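Q: DUF1905 domain-containing protein, please. Structure only.
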Amino acid sequence: MELEFSGAVYSWRGPAPYHFVAVPEPERTELADVARLVSYGWGMIPVAGRIGATDFTTSLWPREGGYVVPVKDAVRRAEGIELDDVVTVPLRVAMPGTD
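A: Structure for DUF1905 domain-containing protein:
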């Protein structure tokens, strides 16, 4: 399954700060359809993604009825991403039996 969307980078200042991009509604609905097939502990969904020229792997985090993409510091540094920047995020969700 492949998705692509754009969103603003925001920060969550918990015990360890994280940066995220929220997955918009149409893509959340698509993810919900496959989540039970691919998710592991706490509803996390493993994905491979790209921002700019930087490839990364991570897991989507369930949050407030949807999902968010953690944007690692290494990706933010490589692409010069700051808070509130709008980025385009193509993602590939690994489906069992397709890799």
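A: Brief note, in case it's useful. The chain has one domain: 2-93.
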